[in-house]
Known about the structure:
Four copies of one chain form a homotetramer.
Chain A: E1 2-7, H1 12-21, E2 27-33, H2 42-45, E3 57-58, H3 62-65, E4 70-73, H4 80-89, E5 93-96, H5 106-113, H6 120-123, E6 127-128, H7 131-140, E7 143-145, H8 149-163, E8 172-178, H9 193-196, E9 201-202, H10 210-222, E10 228-234, E11 241-248, H11 253-263, E12 270-272, E13 290-295, E14 302-309, H12 313-327
Parallel strand pairs in A: 1-2, 1-4, 2-3, 4-5, 5-7, 6-7, 8-10, 12-13
Antiparallel strand pairs in A: 8-11, 9-10, 11-14, 13-14
Amino acid sequence: MIRAGIVGGTGYTGVELLRILALHTEVEVSVVTSRSDTGLRVDALYPSLRGYIDAVFSLPEVETLVECDVVFFATPNGTAMLMAEQLLARGVKVIDLSADFRLKDAQEWSKWYGMEHVCPDLIADAVYGLPELNREAIKKADLIACPGCYPTAVQLGFLPLLENDRIDVKHLIADVKSGVSGAGRKAELATLMSETGESFKAYAVGGHRHLPEIVQGLELVARKSVGLTFVPHLTPMIRGIHATLYGQAQGKLDDVQALYEQRYASESFVDVLPQGSHPDTRNVRGSNNCQISLHQPQGGQTIVVLSVIDNLVKGAAGQAVQNMNLMFGLKEDLALKTIALYP
Amino acid sequence: MIRAGIVGGTGYTGVELLRILALHTEVEVSVVTSRSDTGLRVDALYPSLRGYIDAVFSLPEVETLVECDVVFFATPNGTAMLMAEQLLARGVKVIDLSADFRLKDAQEWSKWYGMEHVCPDLIADAVYGLPELNREAIKKADLIACPGCYPTAVQLGFLPLLENDRIDVKHLIADVKSGVSGAGRKAELATLMSETGESFKAYAVGGHRHLPEIVQGLELVARKSVGLTFVPHLTPMIRGIHATLYGQAQGKLDDVQALYEQRYASESFVDVLPQGSHPDTRNVRGSNNCQISLHQPQGGQTIVVLSVIDNLVKGAAGQAVQNMNLMFGLKEDLALKTIALYP
Amino acid sequence: MIRAGIVGGTGYTGVELLRILALHTEVEVSVVTSRSDTGLRVDALYPSLRGYIDAVFSLPEVETLVECDVVFFATPNGTAMLMAEQLLARGVKVIDLSADFRLKDAQEWSKWYGMEHVCPDLIADAVYGLPELNREAIKKADLIACPGCYPTAVQLGFLPLLENDRIDVKHLIADVKSGVSGAGRKAELATLMSETGESFKAYAVGGHRHLPEIVQGLELVARKSVGLTFVPHLTPMIRGIHATLYGQAQGKLDDVQALYEQRYASESFVDVLPQGSHPDTRNVRGSNNCQISLHQPQGGQTIVVLSVIDNLVKGAAGQAVQNMNLMFGLKEDLALKTIALYP
Amino acid sequence: MIRAGIVGGTGYTGVELLRILALHTEVEVSVVTSRSDTGLRVDALYPSLRGYIDAVFSLPEVETLVECDVVFFATPNGTAMLMAEQLLARGVKVIDLSADFRLKDAQEWSKWYGMEHVCPDLIADAVYGLPELNREAIKKADLIACPGCYPTAVQLGFLPLLENDRIDVKHLIADVKSGVSGAGRKAELATLMSETGESFKAYAVGGHRHLPEIVQGLELVARKSVGLTFVPHLTPMIRGIHATLYGQAQGKLDDVQALYEQRYASESFVDVLPQGSHPDTRNVRGSNNCQISLHQPQGGQTIVVLSVIDNLVKGAAGQAVQNMNLMFGLKEDLALKTIALYP
């Protein structure tokens, strides 16, 4: 059994990791940390886990965590980088769900995240955990930087077009809508039900932290500079991301459809829908799937890619477990073959 | 492998059966019928099932269904009774999620359901599929009448008090709130999002079809006549039932708490929360669990039982599979050990 | 023009007062205070008010407020009692939307609100601002204690039965459901959309602060001791309260219906629906109305009263303005003749 | 008093007209028609209107309607064109909230609406009822074609840029999100709460009926051919439209901001928010306002316009009344000075 630790077990990505790992046949969750809830039973905070998790929240200390084979960081940004080096030195694999190791440029990271990076040397070792792009590197990695939720939906949506140089990369648009769980489990006015229920808005149009991550990812694939306008929105639901992607593409829709189907044919978690479909976030709710469909309105040059995921699963905890499965030589979909909760 | 058929695969209980059975290691779903969608792939109607179900909707015909070991009826009331006799005669076990065999009195049934019962003789053979009450009978049954969603939440909530004669059965109150999926997948004004979102109301206060079913169940346990006021409400969410039960009880809350914990100690799917808790429907969403807590406000005589389930799982498809597991000698919780989707 | 001040203008009852008073033809909102947002334009915080309110948040100081004819306190409990005496002494009328002057027994108040009452002598002078009960006293009052949201819905629902001694007051039950705006505009985990959306729960079953207020009100009307079980619930919507009230009543439903219709015949804001109706909170959303309907299930002794209000209007700001209209000799429904926002 | 008739009073735009007109000081609603509910009191169907509307639904007949000064059509497409000619001939002004007279090209109309136009000659007389564009023509009009909800939000958002030739009209993108009330009050599976709650999707990406209307409007203003990609989405809320508009613009954001502020300075219902703002649909819910803000992410060439309205008010009934006020020489904002319902 793989012994797994979760640092930051009280946020939504933490409890989602617990939901998935509790039923993982090859994993035993041996440590769950929470500074604020140390000493409390995990299932006292999360009654949904009663009967499935026997753990008690402990302090996030290296000495405790080194007994794990792998440690997941489901923490706010800036925490994983404080402990990763020590854990790696002691032979513990690290899967970071936060943003600490996502950007390859430490300067850029500091600019967007408002703090110095404490272990910039580690950044180069970190593998960006998008299995559909980096599967082989992930298998050999000790440190994984799990992609953000928006970056997952957007990159999977643009990938085949960029890899094949079939789109004008100067003017890409990603109009993306997220459920409120993406904002995390934090006591904040802005995500109260009275504030976000029955309402819709864009936010951070001037610049969102996921922008440099997406651009970095797209440029790696496109092998050239990319111009992206990224507008995130908050939609009145709990789970789900819907990316509506626009670009000027060459070629007929039939060809693009074939391109996508081929590219993702052997991927367990990326599902290209029949042409003309409209993916619905509910159809991936609670599952690790990304569903994609393609349109070319009025037969023009503009291609529209619709890409949906569950932000807490494929956009966070599910993808993290997918990475772990790869790192430990397990079947990639272990504990992840669950069906979306519809309705 | 058990070959299972689902009649009425296009409603919410039907698709929920598919979600559960698709991952059941001992079951193969061999027939899924739908009069309106015959010929269509199941996953074309329900993209959430893509990759999990390979079936095509067929017509609901006995000759096709007899190839199954068990047939689930996830149909409107009045359909199962038309086919059950023939299927049973051919050795097929029948699990009815509709109301056709729930009431032991065919006259009473006709009164509430507005039609003649076509096979009243079968009613006596039907076992009421509440495993916590009828486990041994279910194991031997060929025909199961699955309890309604409200009756499940209410009966599990009152059971220990009634079995032990600890409550005044003359004046029971069940104030119950349901998510809108309980109304089914039907094109109706009343359950449009514009009608039910952001609003709350009681309905059918004058008399709801689940009233005689609940009373029948409570009286069987209490072994006397029961006076129940049952008020169902529609709450603006999709899944979940919350029953708030009131009665005049004898004894201290500590004793009642002990009674409940003892009664349900060996039940996999009924979870008595610590005293003073408030169960939340989200903590059972998508799971087969019933969570119960007990209160005695101001130390008075009135006991308040809070009982929550997911109406589509423990209140319908999950309980149906639990019954099937029992009927076929399988582990009772097979395919049902899933954790609620929180948040 | 009446000059009105609002202390605590940044909470939901505060902004609701602004919404109503901005269009009140006899009122000019001259002071809006907020400790946290002093100096900020009111419509910068609340863009819904752009074009309607020209005020800037100021500090809550007596010297500023004495220039008003009336001051509304839309503050957390414990604030109004600090300033009311000084304002009254300077001839300013005070309408308190918080709980500071609701309970007539200062000891009881301290027990439930966890602090000493700083001006217990004022309590006797305060008139409980339920116009349907205390209209004449309100007209002459200088200090109004506006009823809580739950107490408004419950008292209006029980009033005619109690006034006419037509119900067994020993065993009343109030099962009440509230939208989340009732919890106020506070950064708290429990009312995040991810926590309260798509979920339903009871809370404070052991004892809610509105319990003594309701009991005090019911006993005044019944002129005897009342036994009440009060269970509040949180329902996943923003506005609205639905009270489901149970009691053992004498007499036929027709008579009770007539009783209610007669009692409320001349009330602008209490509307008795036709027998057999089910009021829906959406039909009073944004309006100052209370809609009530009556049932006697199965013709038994138990009467069920359904009573709905908008917790922020009839349950708070609307009722406060109704009181103000009475206190200043204006038409009672001035600025309150607005129609519920459906759908 | 102006006598107004409403044909199709049972849909959401019909009941919204009633909500507004019931409080209009210069209007008396004298006829409300409904084929399906003839003979029923209007407030029996819509209890929110109890006390405000005394009318009974009647059959939609010309002889009854000619007694009105103005008739609103809140009907499905294809109905207004059957009666408009007769009413106009009898001196009755007609305000059509449906699409019958929106497109100037009858052939194009037939293509998108799937039926022949029965009075193509009237199309030329119809004035497109966007007051911010056509105020003077509206004042003199007898027949108004009220804009669709999406077209209103998109056109108001693009107008100043197009009028001043400051944007590349070849590649405009309108990514628009609508609440579900936009789908109308029809018994349909797709808009059940269980289907649309907690989920987000695009629809009609291949071509939505509002596309030709928007293009026609933009081209009129731009005085040249326009290339628009329009993608509508369904968002899990009842009211509200959020348009996110993209284009390649010349000039600095400061200048564009000034342009918008100037263009809409004297408009009562279009409100340009401070630079950097993010309008939220809740801030216009129930009001006739359009709130707009402007962004130029990363100081690039792409301009992002955010434009929000309430689809049932400024997107339908409110705008219709605004048109009526203009047609009858009344103050343009009569009965429309209501504040959005927040929260």
